[in-house]
Structures are given as structure tokens and as C-alpha cells.
Amino acid sequence: AKSGGSLIKCKSGSIYVVHSGESLGSIARKFNVSVVSLKSWNKLKTSTIHTGQKLVVNPFTAQNSSTGSKN
């Protein structure tokens, strides 16, 4: 089993519960999104997150029409 936080599905999208030792960068990679997007969706002013914090990782309001290519 993969270690890491828990994913919760809700009306607004997917909510991820941060586990110990994780960073915005590691969570962004896990969900194939950018740190900038994570900060925007969660209205974070800094990149500091805490164990047990709930983060929106895939809001349904996000535009999924164009995925773009990986650099």
C-alpha cells in the first residue's frame, strides 16, 4: 500500500488530507498538478502545509478541457 494522505471525494472536488512529511511539491506530483494550482485552489499564501490539513487537489470547477503536454 502506498503511504501518504487520504483522498476524500466531495461535491466541490477531491480533498486530500496531508500526512506527516509531505510537502505541496510532493502532493502536486502525486496528483499531476502544479504547486501554483494547489496554492490557488486552497487560497494558500505560502507553501507551508501541516499534517492533517485538508487540501483541494482536483476541483470540479477547474478546466479539464485542455490537459496540455508535459514538458
Offer a quick outline of the entry:
With 71 residues, this protein is α+β, with helices and mostly antiparallel strands. The chain has helices spanning 24-30, 35-41, and strands at 6-10, 13-17, 54-59.
Mean pLDDT: 81
Report the structural category. Answer: alpha+beta
The ordered string of helix (H) and strand (E) elements is: EEHHE
Helix content: 10-25%
Q: How many strands, which pairing sense, and closed or not: the largest β-sheet?
A: 3 strands, antiparallel
Distance between the termini: 29 Å
Low-confidence stretches: 62-71
Q: Within the largest sheet, what's the order of strands? A: 1-2-3
The number of helical elements comes to 2
Q: Classify the beta-strand content into a percent band.
A: 15-25%
Please tell me what the overall shape is.
globular
**What's the number of extended β-strand segments?**
3
Rg over CA atoms, rounded to whole Å, is: 12 Å
Task: Outline the structure in words.
There is one protein chain. This protein has 2 helices and 3 strands; from the N terminus they run E-E-H-H-E. It is of the alpha+beta class and 71 residues long. The N and C termini lie far apart (29 Å). Strands 1-2-3 form a 3-stranded antiparallel β-sheet, with no helix packed on it.
